[in-house]
Predict the 3D structure of the following.
Amino acid sequence: MSPPGEPYIQVSDALPLPEFIPGLGTLFVNPDTLPAGPFLAYDHDGKLSATVYMTPLEDLRNGTSYDGLGVGNHTVSSVDIYYNAGHPGVDKPHAHVVLFHDEDARSRLAE
């Protein structure tokens, strides 16, 4: 349940982003793991719904590996990977890798 506790901080408290981002939820991250994350994504009821990674495309092209990334929950029902042109916190173009932790997670994070 939200909040996850230290060392995680709520992303919207550190960056000019909304508290709840449709499609991703309320995000928490350990600042030491930026930019990749993991970002822990919670629904409106505070339930952990997804783990999100944000991997800069330039870094991947240049051979950077992101190994041993944490997982908010080892149960994963589906995975989405998509392009993002950049936003506060991860300004460079990057891939979002979203691990949904149950069958209803995507719909709970949608709005």
User: Anything to note?
Assistant: The two ends are 18 Å apart (CA to CA). The helical segments are 11-14, 57-61, 105-110.
